[in-house]
């Protein structure tokens, strides 16, 4: 790779729209192979069943990963009240069903305003990539270890905005703006429990990281074409 091409494609960051079912590492691995990059990393994990903005840093820009990770994030999605799954999304089968007749929009808004706004504490989902005892939490979960058997540390998070649309109740469309390290599935789980019911995440899209918008992101296929043209 000559110096001109290296500067044009290697020492950069890229906005990628992560495909459904791909892990963030899948994207990094694919782009590394496509661009033959020596150094590459992403600035903030997305779950396999989430889509949306993933910032990929290459070459000298890997030094900026911490900066990108520190930026606020915005997500849109759909949660469903009345049912739960162990993973809090559709990766696993339903394991509980709960009443929703006592829930209305005003109650949901009250819970959000009093319990799920501003600075909060949350327990990360057991199906997450955090390491515990040398293993990812999802590895413990898939081996049948129960959440109460693990010492998952409580984490700080900040919710700057949590808007909802209950027109399709018990499905609730939402938009959340939050700090780094916030687990949307934990918010969904906690909302269900605070409503004396249950909830799971049906859909999630990360739309923004700071000023960077998924509208300006490219697909992996588009990136492939761009890199191919640069290297030709």
UniProtKB/TrEMBL annotation:
SUPFAM superfamilies: Pseudouridine synthase. Keywords: Isomerase, tRNA processing. One of its GO terms (molecular function) is tRNA pseudouridine(55) synthase activity. The active site is at 47 (nucleophile). It catalyses: uridine(55) in tRNA = pseudouridine(55) in tRNA. The keyword Isomerase applies. Residues 33-184 form the Pseudouridine synthase II N-terminal domain. Its EC number is 5.4.99.25. It is an enzyme of class 5 (isomerase). The keyword Nucleus does not apply. It comes from the Bacteria. HAMAP family: TruB_bact (MF_01080). Responsible for synthesis of pseudouridine from uracil-55 in the psi GC loop of transfer RNAs. Belongs to the pseudouridine synthase TruB family. Type 1 subfamily. This is tRNA pseudouridine synthase B. The lineage of its organism: Bacteria, Pseudomonadati, Bacteroidota, Cytophagia, Cytophagales. The gene is truB.
